Each structure stands twice: as C-alpha cells, then as structure tokens.
C-alpha cells in the first residue's frame, strides 16, 4: 500500500493511493486464472471504500480528543480490581 501526496489540477493537495498484492509460487498461475478478476474487483471495492471513508472524515469536523483519565492506582490485570 502506498500513499503519495500530489498537487491536483485546481492547486489543492490530494493523495494518490495505490494498493497491490503479489502472488508467487507454483500455484500463482492457478490463483490468477481462477480468482484474478474477482481479486481485481475486490481491490477496487477496497480502494473506493477507503476513499469514501477518508473523504467523509475530511469533510466533517473532528471531535475533540477525550481527556486522559487519572486513577490513583492502576487496575489489577488479573481480576480488574485496584
């Protein structure tokens, strides 16, 4: 997976996203012949979903981060008590 910052035609900055998978070995040609077109479609779905998610995040304001909580004693990981 690769994210590259690019300048768009309108002068704004954008991101180019590239995703790939490499198959090797004796059965690679069989996998490509059997599932190749399905894999291409699913990777396309993945890229569209990532794009939609990131664009929805950039268009909505981010919520403020939650303030850290302080405890006088750390929780006991064995039984959850302090």
What are the main properties of this structure?
single chain; 82 residues; alpha+beta; elongated
Distance between the termini: 43 Å
* Mean pLDDT metric: 78
| Structure classification | alpha+beta
* Secondary-structure element series: EEH
Low-confidence stretches: none
Largest sheet: 2 strands, antiparallel
Shape: elongated
Total strand count, please?
2
Total count of helical runs of at least 4 residues: 1
Spatial strand arrangement across the major sheet = 1-2
Query: What gyration radius follows from the Cα positions, in whole Å?
Result: 22 Å
- Helicity, as a percent range: 25-40%
Strand content: 5-15%
Tell me what you see in this structure.
Helices cover 39% and strands 15% of the residues. A two-stranded antiparallel sheet has the order 1-2. The model has no long low-confidence stretch (mean pLDDT 78). The chain is built from one helix and two strands. The radius of gyration is 22 Å and the shape is elongated. It starts with a strand and ends in a 23-residue tail after the last helix. With 82 residues, it is of the alpha+beta class. The chain has a domain of 29 residues. A hairpin with a 5-residue loop joins strand 1 and strand 2.
């Amino acid at each position: 997976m690769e994210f590259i910052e690019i300048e768009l035609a309108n002068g704004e900055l954008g991101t180019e996203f590239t995703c790939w998978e490499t198959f090797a070995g004796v059965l690679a040609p069989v996998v490509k012949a059997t599932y190749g077109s399905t894999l291409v479609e699913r990777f396309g779905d993945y890229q569209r979903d990532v794009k939609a998610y990131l664009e929805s995040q950039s268009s909505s304001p981010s919520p403020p981060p939650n303030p850290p909580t302080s405890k006088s004693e750390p929780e006991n990981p064995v039984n959850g008590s302090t």
